[in-house]
Amino acid sequence: MDTPKRSPGNNKDLLRYAGLGTQLLAAIGLGVFAGLKADKWLHTSPLLACVLPLLVLGGIFYKLVRDTGKHKNDESK
Length: 77
What we know:
The protein is mostly helical. The chain has one domain (10-76). It has two helices and no strands. It has helices at residues 8-42, 47-76. Helix 1 packs antiparallel against helix 2 (47-76). The longest helix is centred in the N-terminal third of the chain and has 35 residues, at 8-42. The protein is elongated and about 60 Å long. The chain starts with 7 loop residues before the first helix and ends with a helix. The relative contact order is 0.09.
């Protein structure tokens, strides 16, 4: 059986999505780290350790939707 050949565009898309995934994991990790440090500093329960990553996720999804919507509008003109 022959293996399907990859086009150069496939590799470019794969790298782009791998980069997006890496950025997402790094941002969530930084949100958790900052939340834990802030919780320790403010002597609160792990409230900020839960809230900050959720805020980061919301911001990333907002940016993703805004950016993809911009590209759609540019193509229709």
